[in-house]
TrEMBL record:
Origin: domain of life: Eukaryota
InterPro entries: Peptidase_S1_PA, Peptidase_S1_PA_chymotrypsin, Trypsin_dom, TRYPSIN_HIS
Keyword Disulfide bond in annotation: yes
Molecular function in Gene Ontology: serine-type endopeptidase activity
GO biological process: proteolysis
Pfam families membership: Trypsin
Residue intervals of the Peptidase S1 domain: 26-71
Protein name as annotated: Peptidase S1 domain-containing protein
The keyword Repeat belongs to this UniProt entry's keyword annotation: no
Keywords: Disulfide bond
Amino acid sequence: FAPSGKPFDDACGVASNQPRFLFSRIVGGEEVVPHSWPWQTSLQILGENICGGTVITSTWVLTAAHCFKQR
């Protein structure tokens, strides 16, 4: 959902307003347009980012097991 509480209009798996970079990497990363990758999530505890995830349905987020190990 968008900050307004309304669902995003974006199609699943289709980035909006996002420039394409052939050699982009996560390490060093690139700043992106807010809300241009609406299926990406930030998993947080007390406001601190602990891991990332991907929305795969309206009720499920996929993430790596190590995100919750020892939590």
